[in-house]
Amino acid sequence: MIKVRGAKYVVFGVSNPDDTREFMTDFGLVPVAWHDEATYLRGALPSPYVYIAEKSGDPSLRAFGMELESPADLVRAAEIEGASGIRELDRPGGGRVVDVFLPGGIRIELVHGIADFEPLPIQSALVINEGQRKARFNAPQRPPRVPAQVLRLGHVVLGVPDPIAAKDWAVQNLGMIVSDAMLVPGSKDEYIGFFMRCDRGSTPCDHHTLLITKSDVPSVHHVAFEVQDIDTVFMGHEWMMMRTHRPHWGVGRHVLGSQVFDYWWDPDGFRVEHYADGDLYDNTVPADIVQGTDDHLWAWGPEVPPAFFQKTRHI
Fold it and tell me: Which residues form the VOC domain (predicted)?
């Protein structure tokens, strides 16, 4: 079985890459110079890109890139049923890739060997004076009103007609672990979604790198990017509002995964999320089974908008 380290990048077909680049720059990504027609954007951590925008008359999520632990995993990935052979990546940082398909037809690019770039200067997290534990003295808080600096791609949420089959495929082929399984409210055996994390043994991983949900057709619900701290989420919200982008939902805190979140609509109507302060689990934490109700969606924040439960684009 192969081992997946985590989310690496997403590839979107977009109607106007220039508009997407402007939006994602306000969102906190940084454009990367490259020689083809696609737009590449990176976060502050060393990965050379986390978001690729390719011009398309039919906007869609084209691929979700996930990083493998070793070259041997890449060889094993090519043996997955329906997988492509190993090919070279003509993108920043090079590397090699195997294409596989999640049940439902969504393409996952399993990659290894993409060379890191130098990290960008990272804004430090604010030092917080808690009620009974003080750490900041003789220094006021003055967070700047600037774009929320994105560090990395954290997770992707995909909809498929058969989430159980997709979950089983991810467990069997990618070595992933279920963190939380969501039931149809009131049901004991009808599942509507699975929060899935990578298995890196005793090394803690994001509560979910992949969330699989039920959808009549293959679709993407949102892609989520980690920022430094909660103030970054809030100040990023202020920046996006000032730039007159379309807010969707936030700022609030999720229950499953615990992230402080803020969702926005991009120019093609895809959801993108800033988040901070998410849960980390190692491989000893068993899966929890919960009812898929609003009580398990958010702990505080504005009321969830009805559009949050609607799919965005087919794949």
Answer: 6-113, 152-277
Q: Detail the DSSP E strand segments found in 86-169.
A: 87-88, 96-102, 106-112, 150-160
Please provide the distance, in angstroms rounded to a whole number, between the alpha carbons at the two ends of the chain: 27
Going by pLDDT thresholds of 50, 70 and 90, the confidence category of residue 139 is very high
Q: Are 199 and 177 in contact (CB under 8 A)?
A: yes
Domains of the chain by range and CATH? 4-116+150-314 (3.10.180.10)
Half-sphere exposure of 93 (CA within 13 A, CB side): 22
Q: Among residues 19, 24, 57, which one has the least CA distance to residue 43?
A: 24
Beta bridge partners of 73: none
Query: pLDDT value at position 314?
Result: 60
Sheet with strand 87-88: strands edge to edge:
30-32, 39-42, 51-55, 4-14, 60-68, 106-112, 96-102, 87-88
Average pLDDT over the chain reads 96
How many helices and strands in the chain, by DSSP H and E?
4, 21
Indicate the pTM of the whole model: 0.97
Cα–Cα distances in Å, from 255 out to 71, 192, 283, 298? 36, 17, 20, 5
CA angle 196, 161, 181 (to 5 degrees): 30
pLDDT band at 136 (very low <50, low <70, confident <90, very high): very high
In 236-304, the DSSP E strands lie at: 246-254, 260-265, 271-276, 280-281, 288-291, 298-300
Cis peptide preceding 304, ω within 30 of 0: no
What span, in angstroms and rounded, lies between the C-alpha atoms of 312 and 118? 34
Q: What are the percentages of helix, strand and coil residues in the chain, rounded to 5?
A: 15, 40, 45
Tell me the per-residue pLDDT of 19-59, one tens digit each, with 9 for 90 and over.
999 999 999 999 999 988 899 999 999 999 999 999 999 99
Are 42 and 84 spatial neighbours (Cβ–Cβ below 8 Å)? no
Q: How far apart are CA 153 and CA 280, in angstroms?
A: 15
